[in-house]
Amino acid sequence: MMIEFDRVTKKYKDLTVLDDVSFSISSGEVVGMSGQSGAGKSTILKLIAGILQPSSGRVRIQASRLGYVFQESRLISWKTALGNVTLPLRARGICPYEASATGRRLMDWLGLHGFEDTFPARLSGGMQQRVALARALAIKPDLLLMDEPFNGLDPHLKDNIFNLLEKKIEKDLTTVLYVSHYLEELSRLASRTIHFKGGKLT
Amino acid sequence: MREHGCRTMKISEKLLAVLYSLTGILLLLFLWQLASETMSGLVIASPEDTFQAFGKILTRTDFLSSHFCISMQRIFFGVTLGATAGFVLGILAGVSRPFRLMLEPFRWVLMSVPAVIVIMVSMLWFGVGSMMVVFITSVLLSPIIYVSTIEGMSSVDPDLLEMAAIYRFSLWIKIRDIYLMSIAAPLASGVAIVVGNGVRVVILSEVLGANEGIGYVLSSARTNLDIPDLYALVLLSLLIVGITDFFLLKPAQRRLMRWRVRSDD
């Protein structure tokens, strides 16, 4: 199993966000996750990423390289697009030349050729999200978490990104957990979907 | 064609800005000349007399090699020590709330006490000379950088820190690529204020208690009623601030902030 939630509860003071949740995701599986706002979807991703700890229960993860695409791009404004893409590689000790070559290749692939030296503030919202996706893919993640990353993008661009992403996931056998409000997006990318309501799996 | 039009507009805007600045300078010189003619030359030296005295001062080797050099050294060491102390304490206070609360009374005292009192006390402690001037300058300037650093530390985006945690950035990468750049903007403003204040504090300290330096020469000029010299030294201190700001601080600030989208872009 790549991800295993065993009777996980997460509370913020008196507020129970996740209530006795158990599920598992196998290696190489692409799973969609849906639910209303506040249903606990982002909390699940943060528990998997290790930036939150469960109040009770156990979360088991077997990923060594984790990619995360947030709702907003979370790019570092004072680094160029390429600088943002290569930073996780540099953090893993990859030499600048190799990191730059990987970053450029991914940016080309995502249609960002020519914007390598551009700062995020000069990129459109769609371009910023593609840079964030390139950053997540740069480390060749064995687990990719995506938290409604393409909300607000125009349908044509979204369609292009999905096409590219489908190929990449299939090629690299990446395990993916994709959060979205839109069931048609989930059914396109995911082999199965889990649904949350009021902090419980339904 | 459109790009060419935009570029032409930018150039004409820049020219207009230079024109406005030149008009301001000419207006200042005109008012200065008018004031010197209206009042006695013992109160306000004319621009012409001031510029002549300025030229003479700059050709005096004893002035350049001793008084000017000593003041510049005092400014450099005072600003560097004050800025470093303020920066280090600001980082620590930004990380630790108890430490910040502990330093708060010191910050309040140093930012509230009149400079002249600090000078008097320092003269008692260190006597007259460079040690006293550097001490006063660094003590009075460190709170400015301290406050700018704390402001910068509090503006670090928690979302970026969360992203850094997920991608397992090392502490060094977090400091270099997130913390330092987050505090760069408020710090750059703080440094610009500190350099201007540094020149003022050093000259004030030298006027009140030194036997060398620009302030000392200024004090002598006042005692001897050498008004053109006095105005020339004021002009020199303005030039020190102006040149540092224009050729050192502003280019550094532009380079640091080049990622920002300016309103005229």
Map the helices and strands:
The complex is a heterodimer of chains A (202) and B (265).
Chain A: E1 3-12, E2 15-25, E3 30-35, H1 41-49, E4 56-61, E5 66-69, H2 81-91, H3 96-109, H4 125-138, E6 143-147, H5 155-172, E7 175-179, H6 183-189, E8 192-197, E9 200-201
Parallel strand pairs in A: 3-7, 3-8, 5-6, 6-7
Antiparallel strand pairs in A: 1-2, 1-4, 8-9
Chain B: H1 2-38, H2 47-59, H3 61-95, H4 97-112, H5 115-126, H6 130-154, H7 158-166, H8 171-209, H9 214-223, H10 227-256
Helix pairs in contact in B: 2-10, 3-4, 3-6, 3-8, 3-9, 5-6, 5-8, 6-8, 8-9, 8-10, 9-10
Explain this structure to me?
The complex is a heterodimer of chains A (202) and B (265). With 202 residues, chain A is of the alpha/beta class. In chain A, 36% of the residues lie in helices and 27% in strands. Chain A has helices at 41-49, 81-91, 96-109, 125-138, 155-172, 183-189, and strands at 3-12, 15-25, 30-35, 56-61, 66-69, 143-147, 175-179, 192-197, 200-201. In chain A, the strands form 2 sheets. Chain A has a 6-stranded mixed beta sheet, sandwiched between helices. Chain A has a 3-stranded antiparallel beta sheet with strand order 2-1-4. In chain A, helix 2 (81-91) packs across helix 3, helix 2 (81-91) packs parallel to helix 4 (125-138) and helix 3 packs across helix 4 (125-138). The longest helix of chain A has 18 residues, at 155-172. Chain A is globular, with a radius of gyration of 17 Å. The model of chain A has no long low-confidence stretch (mean pLDDT 89). In chain B, 32% of the residues are buried. With 265 residues, chain B is mainly alpha-helical. In chain B, 85% of the residues lie in helices and 0% in strands. Chain B has 10 helices and no strands. In chain B, helix 2 crosses helix 10. Classes of the chains: A alpha/beta (202), B mainly alpha (265).
